[in-house]
Design a protein that fits this description.
With 55 residues, this protein is α+β, with helices and mostly antiparallel strands. It has one domain. 13% of the residues lie in helices and 24% in strands. It contains 1 helix and 4 strands; from the N terminus they run βαβββ. Strands 1-2 form a two-stranded parallel ribbon. The radius of gyration is 15 Å and the shape is elongated. GO terms for molecular function: uracil phosphoribosyltransferase activity.
Length: 55
């Protein structure tokens, strides 16, 4: 794999809960200094709008 190297940058990854949590450890293995945040969303069955339940 070929990728650009980011030096001097502070990275943060924000997985969506459940769907993205499985990738968190892999990202931390690649970028150990990265910060991790979390977002939880669900879709309201009546309005079909996304609703935040955890940020």
């Amino acid at each position: 794999m070929v990728a650009k190297r980011l030096t001097g940058k502070k990275l943060a990854f924000v997985p969506i809960l459940r769907a993205g949590l499985g990738m968190t450890q892999g990202i931390l293995n690649l970028v150990p200094a990265a910060r991790i945040g979390h977002v939880g969303l669900y879709r309201d069955p009546e309005t079909l709008e996304a609703v935040e339940y955890f940020c």
